[in-house]
Amino acid sequence: MPNDRKLSSNHFFEVRLEPQGAFLNRRGEIADFIKERELFRHWNIGSNKVDFWNSEDRSEDPETASVSFRSVSYQMLNPSTQNHFSDRTAKFLTALEEAPGFKFTPVERLGVRAHFYLQVEGLTFSELHQKFAEKACGKPFKEIFDEVWTDVGVILELRKGETFLRIHTGPMKKDQFVKQFSPLSEKDSIGEVGFFLDIDCFRVDLKTTSSRDIIGTMKTLHKTCWEKLDKLANFLEISQ
Q1: Does the structure show a pLDDT above 70 at 122?
Q2: Domains present along the chain, CATH in parentheses
């Protein structure tokens, strides 16, 4: 489960739109509108975008969003359920569509990305490494090299219909995950040995300007991220 102490995860959504110059003249109105809807407490207006967050210290906020003249993004650390991130993102997108001076232009790219760190119990890092190497690479491949394997990972680029997937996965230690992918996860009560999955699911040239279509696609892609985590964990015989 997402709120299990064995799992730490970061979730990201971004939709890239055809540029809209009118946005640059309405940034303040958009910022005030989102704050008035009580979606975020704080905002900052930059040269071409507006950032949103809730905590007093922006750098430690587990949930943030931004809107620019050509994109919208949303980020969340450790959602309480599998649907929490997508539901919050959908709420933000729905509100944004009603904001003065903003409109959804044709979609050039829509993606959801997740970084998962799943604690592995009962195995040392070396044992997990060997298990992953044999399952992911297969013994025949592994036996080509008679040297000791000190690290192993898998990078895949996949496509199913209109959906593209980029996957990076392998054994990882908590300190590496925190340093490279999720500084806020340093406070999480997760073990020092784990299984890492970086998955980016996206579609391109959707051309739709409908927030309903954008939200539906976003939820489908986010669901795919969780499904791939489950399948990989089951394949590696790592319980969640």
Answers
A1: yes
A2: 9-111 (3.30.310), 113-235 (no CATH)
